[in-house]
Amino acid sequence: MVTMKDVAERAGVTKQTVSNVITGRVHVSPATAARVRAAIDELGYTPNLVARSLATGSTRTVGLIVPTVTGSFYSELTEEVEDVLAVHGYHLLLGTTRLDGERAKQHLTGLTSRLVDALLVAGDVGLTEHLPVLADARFPVVLCAWEGEAPDTLPVVTIDYERAGFLAGRHLRELGHERVAVLGHPAHAPRIAGFRRAFAKDGITVPDRAVHFAPEPTPAGGIAAANAAFAADPDLTALFTTEDLLALGALEAARAAGRSVPDDLSVVGHDDTMEARQLSRPALTTVSLPKREMARQAIEVLMRAVTTSEAPTNALQLLRPTLIVRASTGPAAPAGRGQ
Amino acid sequence: MVTMKDVAERAGVTKQTVSNVITGRVHVSPATAARVRAAIDELGYTPNLVARSLATGSTRTVGLIVPTVTGSFYSELTEEVEDVLAVHGYHLLLGTTRLDGERAKQHLTGLTSRLVDALLVAGDVGLTEHLPVLADARFPVVLCAWEGEAPDTLPVVTIDYERAGFLAGRHLRELGHERVAVLGHPAHAPRIAGFRRAFAKDGITVPDRAVHFAPEPTPAGGIAAANAAFAADPDLTALFTTEDLLALGALEAARAAGRSVPDDLSVVGHDDTMEARQLSRPALTTVSLPKREMARQAIEVLMRAVTTSEAPTNALQLLRPTLIVRASTGPAAPAGRGQ
DNA sequence: CTGAAAGCGCTTACAG
DNA sequence: CTGAAAGCGCTTACAG
Hints:
Chains A, B: InterPro entries: Cro/C1-type_HTH, HTH_LacI, LacI/GalR-like_sensor, Lambda_DNA-bd_dom_sf, Peripla_BP_I. Chains A, B: Residues 3-50 form the HTH cro/C1-type domain. Chains A, B: Residues 2-56 form the HTH lacI-type domain. The structure is a homodimer. By secondary structure, the first copy, chain A, is of the alpha/beta class. Chain A is built from twelve helices and twelve strands. A six-stranded parallel β-sheet of chain A has the order 2-1-3-4-5-11. In chain A, strand 6 (180-184), helix 8 and strand 7 form a beta-alpha-beta unit. In chain A, helix 1 packs across helix 2, helix 7 (161-174) runs parallel beside helix 8 and helix 9 (219-232) crosses helix 10 (244-256). The N and C termini of chain A lie far apart (77 Å). Chains A and B meet through helix 4, helix 5, strand 2, helix 6 and helix 10 of A and helix 4, helix 5, strand 2, helix 10 and helix 11 of B. Chain A binds a DNA duplex through helix 2 and helix 4.
């Protein structure tokens, strides 16, 4: 394996000079620089990045922890992170938790040892309890896509999930809906709270029995939850699902139950995924989250901390969601149908 | 920052002894081992992995290059790779190409410098031309999910794509279809060739004008391509799409054109994605690929090469696809409809 | 079972 | 502008 010393000998200089022409930190006379470059080419030399990392204390790698890379939300976030990193010349070390606390912990401890210059943790499920592991991490950490309670010691760039739910609820209220149900996941409590707030403003409470947790975050899970909701309240006129895939299942369940959307039933989703945009019939009204923007800002906070080697401020940055009205929502039917 | 030397001083031993208790390579007396461990805890010492990597020559990281992490095929592959890696105690460095040759090249060259112990390249689009960059890589490389021509210098673990297309075609032939069209992408030439072979066996040629390339690999792209196919041959009775998402679009286009599936039109997809399983109406007949198995085998070949430090044999391993018959295919209609 | 030495391949002040 | 030295924090034979 050819090293800097080999190049130096070949070019008739010392290895420091070779280092200088490679890093460009110190000016080298054009003549010797050319000799060095020639030697590099002839020998097919490539620098050993591990050695460089040890000397500089930087691996030019950042770690990203996400729940999964399946499903458009986190995969788009991952690609956005990768893009921003590439601009800065950084590599991406990826770990997925699969919503499993043990896996999350393993990743957290595994990265504690200077393998990465910084760490971005996206998604809080199963992670919150293991965050203390990071207490004496010697690199900056930022949290994003954080829906639960975030520790106030760390900077977090996330979305105003409560508002996302509120937007969905307000839209339904404006259409006159009163009897509604929520299909979701326990981890989405803030969205659900926001949704409820929109109704509470008008003195309408969305009772706990109107909140149905789906067995899995898939269309099949949505079908099951929707059927449960129909059974619990045959007179409901609208559904808010905390994930688009659940909404697609709900649409299917409505069809099977003979409920026409949006005439008999309005459905609003959450995330504005590709599935919502291209596969739902009717086209799904949903809440769109600025995920790419969030990824970009989170990683920028991280990169700033890395390049300035100052700890980032532990600010909480909240990005605003947007409601996208399509064809799955309409005015509340004049009366219940009690089918 | 606390180092091994600090721990050694605290425990009253030399740093080599500390190293010995950490690596476990050399037996250390229980008494001193306990002292060392205590010192580690008190000081909150964690080993510097970069220094270890430089000394051992291994980073315990493998690189994975995929076209994208959006869409279920490569994201499931990525998670499978991650799982196998975790078993071996390895980290995952991820790079996506987005089907862009330039990005691919950057990743390839970026990893050339001992940052990774091994490299898995999944998906050939835009990559083949840049593979020579890897010529003097000092770590094992394996190719997978390789549909185009693979260089015979590297081991490849892939799927028999030609057979995948053949299975789709044979199924349609067994149902009596003769006038068919293909919706796909130029990079899927092998699947298309296999599909054609199934018809050629019975003396039926699928002409070039029956092959329609979709503008994009999405349902919208599928709609466009399906409409082109209907226009080119109003009498066709079946469609093979080289990706499930195109099939979903085709189903939509058929509905819009008043063609009932599978009575008037049969549709067979490719990949058996979540969308095909849960979102298609009627349920999509498709070809299932053993992607997780492929990922597992590819990474095992890599890990074997890494642990034995023998170059892997440049074998070509072909995994077999399976046809999943659901509800979108049926017997060919007795006569064309010429609508 | 423990210690002294050398080395992994770079970079970073610091002299000249 | 170039060279000699020290150091990044480990591991790996090799003595004792």
